[in-house]
């Protein structure tokens, strides 16, 4: 009868995310992850052949966790309400998932995207395309046809909420209700 794995890929990625949130992506090493879960380094290498594989898996898992709800909110109706829900989702998800949010805020290059396998880079590009297509679909539904209107929408729904999260993460460490209200107000003005 085979032994049950003590250290799953998810438990190792959880440890990697925690290390990144506290000490930055550069601190995520195979030995640091092994130490964090009190496992031999072979346990990490068994799941991830090298550091690039570990970091790309962490990035892709985090993107998937975030995009699931974000893409759902973008598809909602009516389009103006979907815009506000999407911006709110970024803020609330970040507040509820501060460790994962710190991974997203760091960005893929912090996690060594240039060293990822071709397969991992392609998977990341697919996720980015999925996001861009969803934003384009919402822009269409809003009647935003010009490049500047679409850029304003992306700034309001992605960049503005992340800027608010980044600013608050340097302060109290959580996204306040006042920040959520302010971002929602700005988004409403952009999509009106």
TrEMBL record:
Pfam families: TetR_N. PANTHER family: HTH-TYPE TRANSCRIPTIONAL REPRESSOR NEMR, TRANSCRIPTIONAL REGULATORY PROTEIN. This is TetR/AcrR family transcriptional regulator. Residues 6-66 form the HTH tetR-type domain. It comes from the Bacteria. It comes from Rhodococcus parequi. The keyword Lipid metabolism does not apply. Transmembrane segments: none annotated. Residues 29-48 bind DNA. InterPro entries: Homeodomain-like_sf, HTH_TetR.
